[in-house]
Amino acid sequence: MANIRRKKPIFTMAVAGSLIAATAAQTAFAQTQNARQEALRVAPHPGMMPHAGRMFPGTSLTGVPGFPLPTIHTQQAYAPDGDFTARWTRADALQIKAHSNPSVSAGQNSLPSQLIMPGIPADFPTINPDVWVWDTWTLIDKHADQFSYNGWEVIFCLTADKNAGYGFDDRHTHARIGFFYRRAGIRADQRPANGGWIYGGHLIPEGAQEQVFKGTAYTITAEWSGSMRLLDPRDNKVSLFYTDMAFNRDASGQDITPAQAVITQSLGQIHADFNHVWFTGFTTHTPLLRPDGVLYQNGAQNPYYNFRDPFTFEDPNHPGVNYMVFEGNTAGQRGVANCTAEDLGYRPNDPHAETVQQVLDSGAYYQKAAIGLAVAEDSSLSKWKFLTPLISANCVNDQTERPQMYIKNGKYYIFTISHRTTYAAGVDGPDGVYGFVGNGIRSDFQPMNYGSGLVLGNPTDLNQAAGTDYDANPLQNPRAFQSYSHYVMPGGLVESFIDTVENRRGGTLSPTVKLGIRADASAVDLRYGNGGLGGYGDIPANRADINVSAFIQDLISQNVSIGPNTTGQVNAFVNTNK
């Protein structure tokens, strides 16, 4: 028995020694792995094509010395009605700063040039002398193809009256949806410098959208962004999805109660003749979605909540089912410090990781951007149900505006826009387009380009304070706010509006640019247009809705005499350059 008692502590010590040795070996292995990871990280080469000038260097996920590695995202698809939400993490967003050059001269661009929109000339033309123009969208079908109608291209824009006595930065509470049109099929180099767009006026009859707010307190209403769906490419019926806004403010412009944001539908018809385009309808406005405070933050939880910008589409993998993406915020009370390790997204043992407490101490928990999803419950697209958010950006950014689903080569891309000034403390990035790719509508979306999410930014020096578009930092790049509200079109074309170029305010359409998109990376196509800048407002249709009988009926409605040659004239008009 004595021998047995003597062996037990010896055995225990041996086991303990083995554990200590194993732990030491694991620690040494982890340190070796970290050292290898650091050695593999690629030093940034801003201002030039890195990685020996390859077109899509953004496919690299090996990181940059001194910065954390991006979060691992599988791109795996999940059921659209499931509860999985992808995260744009702090580890992801920090890749933007990682690939920014810390030593450029003040006022230059510090970001990789293949991800930056070329500089817009300061002598840009204006689309219209009487209205400011900003968020812009096109006439699309369920697949997001862009349609001309009976020989005319049509776009829809947020507009505000330049002559009403308020300034450009006060336009949002006065926003009305306007439309522009031009002849289809004419090359950009054959159009006027401003794109040749003709202003058609307001889309919605005066005051019609106020019916949504009946019985509530408000002092002014506005019409904010959305999308326009051509319900049948052989017909003229259209469905407008937009954000109906109501503000309740005192005489000094301060909110008495939080603004009301309601995603709304209104139906109408498009018409055209030889000379112009016009619309009828849009008199009935159906509220579709209000933020519920359960999946999407509402005004009771945060007076500064975001809820807007509906974009509808049909998923080819779910024929006949219509979905909507929109901007939202993660539900929950504003100011509650509830960031998680999953929101941070750091890999185990990453030496450059922040702790949750460090992030909370920085105040980053006020930023709770989300890209929402809803599904239509009827064929008229007038009833919708919330689904779990597709992407959250808690502790990263507070705005993911104007999201859209872009499907290419079996991949599902979500493109959205955001501001430098809406990033959380400790992370940074330019005003512009951000993109995420997965294998389905609901996926573990991977942020594009180095795992950062940045797709198309304005020229920006991240070493200098941002300033604002209306109060510029003289040390910042003078084009850091040159364009915004980008919308990715078929073929990778991107339109936007001009905000500020060299202290000149815009309110007009930007030059179109083109993105090359491949897998999880993108690059600005500098062969497009002039050094990467196409025509101002070059927004071409890639499909045509031709309806000769409707054209003739529209001629009759305009009191045009119909003769034996009318059908031939109409055919020649609508089929020219289609």
Automatic annotation (TrEMBL):
It comes from the Bacteria. Keywords: Calcium, Hydrolase, Metal-binding, Signal. Ca(2+) binds at D398. Its cofactor is Ca(2+). SUPFAM superfamilies: Arabinanase/levansucrase/invertase. The record marks D309 as: Transition state stabilizer. GO terms for biological process: carbohydrate utilization. Residues 1-30 form the signal peptide. GO terms for molecular function: hydrolase activity; levansucrase activity; metal ion binding. Substrate binds at W134, S225, R308, D309, Q399, T400, E401. The active site is at D135, E401. Belongs to the glycosyl hydrolase 68 family. This is Glycoside hydrolase family 68 protein. It comes from Gluconacetobacter aggeris.
